[in-house]
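Box 4.2: Ligand-aware structure prediction
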Amino acid sequence: MVSIEHLTFSYDGRPVLNDLSIKIKDGVITTLLGANGCGKTTLLQLMTKNLKPTCGAIKLDGRELKDISVKEFARRAAIVHQKNIAPDDLSVERLVSYGRLPYSSIFRPGLNEENQEQVERALKLTNMDTLRERHVGTLSGGQRQRAFIAMALAQNTRLLFLDEPTTFLDVRYQVEILRLVKTLNKEQGITIVMVLHDINQALTYSDEVIGLHGGKAVLQGAPEDVISTESIRTLYGVELPVFHSGGRLCVMAV
Ligand code: ADP
């Protein structure tokens, strides 16, 4: 479990997160919600050791992240960033094999059997095995995103962070990625923490949502329990009807 205790974070003295405390449950999909600039990406970067808290603690299974080495952390948690960069002429299989770096050593360079198996598993889970030889620069947006998710899966972690995994994709590929995320959670038991822009997609695909506002977590719980016209107004400053359709909770985001 990831637990965040009294976390404060400032960029150049300008506070973004202020005395924030939350717990991320194991085995479920948690989505961070909130207006642009409220600190969702910053929080994800803090939870993945890419930024250091100004004050407070972030713990993974009871241990502070600052006491966990980068290599050990990379064996326990993977992140797919909002903007993923790779050379255009890199093959998909090579890209995915970089996910095995936390398991490599200068004494054992190259891919051993376990590493090969994990690369195969990641390619299959993301349906990228038939595209393994393609160069990253030739992939469509949806394929490219699946390739980077495959690289993260090759790390074979119990915890996966995704920062706006559907941005830049049209709706068909957005749904494809979200269904893949659901499958990874349900069938592989991977704990997912993600940032999503689309509130309705967040409500449909998340077991738990956390809403950030004013540097704090102002709501946390199952979407059914915490999403309402009032909470949407608090998070986004806009009045929108919340209703049920076909058994699903929906926000009229128009
Ligand atoms: P969100 O993901 O919710 O849109 P961010 O975490 O990206 O929000 O940003 C939170 C705030 O921190 C914003 O005001 C943003 O301008 C600022 N910010 C983000 N990254 C930096 C940075 N590297 N240096 C200075 N300010 C930053």
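In the box above, the bound molecule is adenosine-5'-diphosphate. The chain has a mean pLDDT of 95.
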